[in-house]
Amino acid sequence: MRIIKYKELILILFLSLIINFSTINTFPVLDRDEARYVQSTKQMLETGNYNSIKFKDDLRSKKPIGIYWLQSISVNLFSFKKKTDYSDKKLNDIWKYRFISSLFSLFSCLALFFLATKVFDRKTAFYSSLTLQCTLLFVIESHIAKTDAVLLTCSICSMLLLMGYYKGIFIKKFDYIFLAFWCSLGFSIMIKGPVLLLIILVTTIFIMLIKKKVKWVHATNPLIGFFILLLIIIPWFLSIPSVEQSSFISEGLKKDFLDKMIGAQESHGAFFGAHTIAILVLFFPMSLFLIPSIQKSIKGYSSENIFFLIAWILPNLIILELVPTKLPHYTLPLYPGLALLVGSNIASQKSLIINGKQIYNNLNFLLYIIIITVLVYVIFIAMRDYSSILQDYKYVAFFTYLVFLVPIFKVIRINKVRSFYYQVFLGCITSIFIFGFLLPKLDRIWISKEIYNIINTDNKEFKSSTIATIGYNEPSLIFLLGTKTAVLKSLKEDFFEKNIYNYIIVEKKYLPDFIKIIKNSKYKYFLLNELKGFNMAKGKWVNTSIFKLREE
Which residues pair with 542 in a beta bridge? Predict the structure, then answer.
């Protein structure tokens, strides 16, 4: 009987093990954001300096310290090594860094379940938690060692507690709810800066303008709450040197945050509406329920629950669409709101059919079929172009398309709850397929891993200080080979007078100059191996050669 009582919680935990944890070690470190995060954490562990964020010798001040501390705790916890026993390869287990993202993804589902039970009802909370857990973007972020999964947990806690204040559920001025709200907001700032603070401000202002209600905001005690934020943020900021403080203000707040609001950075610009289209695709497989849920929410606008969710999603989405710099994960803090719309719709309706004209139902299913087609086409292109292992990629893509598409014609004929559970099952299958099967097979994109394997096979005791690279210098290569790997900007005639390296990695562009230099040098190098791969970070094919110093 006790198991039946906690069946929802057991299912959430079970799905999390499958979706969030089981495949975090099946593919190498990703360029570039993940590799930069984990390399900076790795250097903290190597040096024992947990206050400064560095990538090699450069300050990395785009994000606050929080994520690096969390990753350091995880790696230390699972390494079972003395702090002084860290060498180049003992910190290379990427799953130890990704564990934090997987763990906080689980926390997000649990927080959504428990807090939504307070402000909605248990059934809506359960369906919403499963919806979020199975969406494609959520699954992707749970597998990547960066800030977004942790920010999502903070977003769920802060926004649902704010919803409790709005509905008058939480009325005490100073209690654990008050502390939880402001601490989760403060923690989010330590993770990713003022992103969540901005979302809360936009939501609050939207509610005050539309509903003309201000009194509920007073219950959150903003002045004392702001003081709590300062207590969380200021100690670390004051503890770092003034040079790093200036770097954090200029790089983190101005360049990484404010400049992105004004202009497109790093070729990540897109048209207005790009985020909305991305949500429809990345909400898969729960995008089947998204349009009906939005349609129902428009009709239920007067409901306090629905109105708050609209205030959470709509104004923030419009702002994100207006911001020139666009990346798909920017909308992740809005996904819990969308999941709650879907969850409340599933809980209150038996049929999948949209009330009203049949054309809306036809368009919804057509849109879902288009989404499936786009996803399978991307999978097909990935297998065809970036895998030398998958010879039968056409059959794999066709079978995947059938698995995704054919059951939908059965799903639309059964009741909504049963169709919902089928989509949950499909979410599990999708996660296992992508991270357990597809990504490990895309060998042509894992250039850094292949270079590491070549050098490690030749000499398992190699030291990063004996390796140099020119042309190909992605952060993933530095993480795998070691912090002391030399990154060369150019080749000069006096190249060998400064340092002698046992291994030199040369991109094709620099190969003629390198051959010319070694011909006139007393140090003899021979070609150990060469490879061709696709650099995902730059979006182009690269040819690299690995040379080894010939032993006399």
Answer: 533
